[in-house]
Structure formats: structure tokens, C-alpha cells
Amino acid sequence: MKMRFLFCSAWLLVTCLGGLADLAGQDNARPNVIVFLSDDQGWGDFSCNGNQNLATPHIDSLASQGILFENFFVCPVCAPTRAEFLTGRYHPQSNVKGVTRGQERMDLDETTIADCLRKNGYVTAAFGKWHNGMQYPYHPCGRGFDDFYGFCSGHWGHYFSPVLEKNGELVRGDGYINDDFTSQAIKFIEEHRAQPFFVYLPYNTPHWPPQMPDPYWQRFASKEIVQRGRKGDKEDLAKTRSALAMVENIDWNVGRVLGKLDELGIADNTIVMYFNDNGPNSNRWNADLKGKKGSTDEGGVRSPLFVRWPKQIKDVGRRVQQVAGAIDLYPTLLAATGSENVGEKLLDGKNLLPIWEGRETNLGFRMLFSYWRGKGSVRTQQFRLDNKGLLFDMVDDPQQKKDISSEQPAIAALLLGSLIRFKQDMEDQMDSSTRPFSLGHPDFAYTQMPARDAQISGGLKRSSIHPNCSFVTNWTSTEERIHWPVEVIEPGRYEVQLHYTCPSESLGTQLKLTCGERELDAVISVAHDPPLQGPDQDRFKRAESAVKDFHASSMGVIQLDEGVQTLSLQAEEIPGESAVDFRLLMFRRVDDGS
């Protein structure tokens, strides 16, 4: 049995049980929980952290009316942070090793905080960017959430009334994407205010593309940026202004939720948390911290954690110095809500409830690890050892400018040895095999097979090097194919809907869908060739894919057999210069195959 290099087990069990005991004597209702998670926002993108370029009064109010953890750490990129929050475990253990093409999925034997809260009597919902698996049971509705509205991909290509999904079914969004997510969340809160609820609001901004409602851009389009990025890092002011404008929109939406809690009279016993998923997505003011998104240095993994809970947090306005991380939120919420942990795996996080309530000021010595694609660093209360083995005193030198490894050789050796063992342990636990995509789970009506998850051959091209919201184009040969490794969970008959665009000269294109030994033929009979959308509303030139208004057409019904096989889409005849531009296949169960 492999040696575990994780700091959890017995201590965690004791502290969680202690939190349960604390709440057991209370006769008041269990608290509601709302968790905001922003996408690509930096530690410095808040006015309460000293940023004079923008104003975030509603988010700041969470600190003045609650507490702010100043040394809170997440992962260098999106999906791993989400996994660590949801599972309370370092992300490689749940096999989250990438951000697209299925590598963002958490293994199915992982238990999420939503699983726990739902089994302990909470009604649960998520509104926004999921990014931990699309096909059920990797879908949020298979990971403890009663309701989901948003998108499962790593980023989206258009932010104004885009195609989203509601519990698996594709729907049209209503207005600006984060405003829409917030409206849906408020509606859910209103409907469930009489019972304990858990609302997860993972916003998808300020991740690019740079889109926001005009009033937010107008405030920044010509605004002087008085604080700049780290010296030596090239700053693109259009990116800075775009990010800050989107952050101010987030702040407005946070204010909408807080206002609704006040209106309903449930703010006092509602836990509200806010944090970021990684460092900033561009070089901009971040208190001169080293690194940005993708880096395991301080600037790439440091986020504030705001916590407001008026009923239990009495000593408000505190700035907590204790190092903590996304892995700590699972055990903390279990303790705060008096919930039993229904999972069987050891957690890496620690219960922060005693610090929330002011009963403790620190958790003793601990090491928090950051890992991404073979690179890593380790943070203690005072020190950070970086990926190159350099040691920094983060109290005296938070910008990581002076290596002190020669002055503190014992500490450097301890942290280096710990980091080496941690990385080896994490890499040993990651599965290098290709996991097939689930198709046709009996508990869910829909299965999407999008272009982003597909493998493509020949001259086929993606609409962007960033696959998450891409489509497949340049389909000029009948030798080319789009294919996915799939596992059909339950055999049966499924209607297949094709989402595509096609110019009139390519009408009559014949397609063949194959899954194992089963085949389905279809002919494109409706021309649909809309223009690209998205870039015309951007504030600078994007790198992400543009989108189209894809047409949905039934290909017919196919019988699927149980088991692992290859799903393949191929053109058998192309009348014009190219076949369709392909976005996704949607499978809907027709019967159970009996």
C-alpha cells in the first residue's frame, strides 16, 4: 500500500466531530450556504485589497461584515480548484489533470460537498461554469446538485443570451451571462427559502473573451489605470480594463444576491463565501505578487477568501493571516452545517470553523501544496519553496524577490523533501489511461458529445487552439472523421440531434454515425450558414473561438449496445467544397432497449 503524504485523517475527524458537537446544542435552523467562485480574478482585483483602479463595495462588505482570509490558496488553473473545493482533496487524487477533453473530470468514486449536504437534508443547485465533467454522471446533476443551469465546459464563447443548459437540456440564455446566472440563483433562493439550501455560483468571468454590458465598459474604456502590473511584466491595458469591468459586474451581481437575502429575512443564518479559482489572467496590478494564472508562485495561486455568517461570526472585520486553501472548505462546511461526511476517502483539508468563530487564531504548522503539470511549490505560514527549489520568506518578502535557501538550509531541505514526496505521491495516483466518455446513463435523459471532447483526423481543424468552446471545420474529405471513446452505460434506442452549420452549396452532404457495430445515416437537408458571433462585441482581439448560431436537426434513432466502443461521425458524400461545421451531438433516450 502506498505511503500517504497527506496531512488529514485523525486530526480532521476530530475537528469535524467537534464542529458537529458545537452545533448539536443549538436549536436554531441549520444555515444556508452560498458560494461565489470567480474565474481568472486575481488577489488584487478587489478594492478592499488596495486596488484603486476599480470599486467592489458589495464583495468588500463580506469582509467588513464577516472575515477575510488574506493567505488563502487555490490552484494555478480552473478545473483543479473546483475539484479541490468540491472534494476537500488535492486535485490529482480525483484524476483532474487538465482543463478540457475529459481531463477535467473528477473520478466517480469521489464524494462532493454537494453530495454530503444533499444527503443531510439540503436542497442544492449550481448556476454558472461547472468545468468538472459534462456527461452524466460527471455532470453536476450526478455530483450532488438537484439543479444546474449554465455550461459544463471550461470557458464559453459568447456572453450575451448564449446557448446554455438546464439539467442537461439545451436552452437559450437570457441577457448577459452572469446577470442571468444570478437571476436564476435568486429565483432558486426565493423558492427554497423555507428549507436549508446550498447555492454554488461559479461565475465565468473575468475569463476571456472580453465581453461585458456597455455601461461597465464605458466606465473603463478611457479610465486612467493608476496602479500597474509587476515591474518587468508587459501589461496590456485593454486586457486590464476588460478584466476590471467584468469584476465590477460580478460585484453588482453579488450585491443582488445579498440584497435578496436581506429582503427575505434570511441573511443572518446564511453563510456567504467568495473566492477566486486562480491568479489573474493577465499582467495587471496584483500587489506585485510573482506569477499569474498557470503559475505555482504566489500570484498564481493566492486568492482572498471572504466569509460572512452574521449568526456565528461576531468579531467581524478580521483579516485572518492563517494559511488556508480550497481543500479546507469541504470539512469546514460539514462542521458549520452539522452535516455528516458521507464520503469514505481521507480529506486533505482542515476545519476552519474555529477560526471563523474566533475560538482559535491558528491551526498550527501546516504545508499547503500547489501542483500543475509537473510543477509545484509548497507554502507554510512563513515560507514558500518554489518549483526551482528557491526559498522565500513570505512575511518579509511576499513578492518573492530574495532567495534565502542558503540562509535557511534546514527549512529549504525540509520543504524540498516534502514537495518531492508530495509530487511523487500525486503523480502515482493519477491515471494515465484514457477514460471513455459516458453515454446513455439511465438516470439522465441527455448526453452531449461536443466537438471539444472529440478527436479529429486528416485535415479537420478546430475553430480555435482552445478547444473548450470550439467547433470542427474544414471538413473537405470523406476520409476524415470525428470520434470519441465512449462507454454506453445502458443499451437502448437513442434519438441523435446534430448541431451544425452548412452553406447551401453543401446541401445533400451525407453523414454516417457509427457506435461500435451500430450505424445511423443522415442527409443534410436544411442549409444554415450564419455569421460568426462574439468578436464584434469583444473589447480586444480574442484567442478563444468565435461561435455560431448552430442549427439542431434530428439524425434519427440509433440502437446502442452496452460497453466501451468508439463513436464516430464521418461524411460519406460532400457535394460542395466542405461538409458541415460541427458543434455537438445530443443523445436523448427513446426507450430502454427492452
List keywords for this structure.
594 residues, alpha+beta, six-stranded mixed beta sheet, single chain, Jelly Rolls, disordered N terminus, eleven-stranded mixed beta sheet, Alkaline Phosphatase, subunit A
Task: Tell me what the structure shows.
- The strands form five sheets. Strands 1, 2, 3, 4, 5, 6, 7, 8, 9, 10 and 11 form an eleven-stranded mixed β-sheet that branches. Strands 16, 18, 21, 23, 24 and 26 form a six-stranded mixed β-sheet that branches. Strands 12-13-14-15 form a four-stranded antiparallel β-sheet, covered by helices on one side.
- It has three domains: 9-350, 3-Layer(aba) Sandwich (Alkaline Phosphatase, subunit A); 383-429, no CATH class; 437-589, Jelly Rolls, CATH 2.60.120.
- Helix 1 (9-24) packs parallel to helix 9 (329-337) and helix 5 runs parallel beside helix 7.
- 51% of the residues are buried.
- With 594 residues, it is an alpha+beta fold.
- It has helices spanning 9-24, 57-64, 78-87, 113-119, 177-191, 214-220, 237-264, 298-301, 329-337, 353-356, 409-429, and strands at 32-39, 67-73, 123-129, 147-151, 163-166, 169-172, 197-206, 270-276, 302-308, 318-320, 324-325, 368-372, 375-379, 383-385, 391-393, 437-439, 446-450, 455-456, 461-462, 472-473, 481-488, 492-501, 510-515, 518-523, 551-560, 563-573, 581-589.
- A hairpin with a 2-residue loop joins strand 5 (163-166) and strand 6 (169-172).
- The chain starts with 8 loop residues before the first helix and ends in a 5-residue tail after the last strand.
- The protein contains eleven helices and 27 strands.
- The model is unreliable at 1-27 (pLDDT under 50).
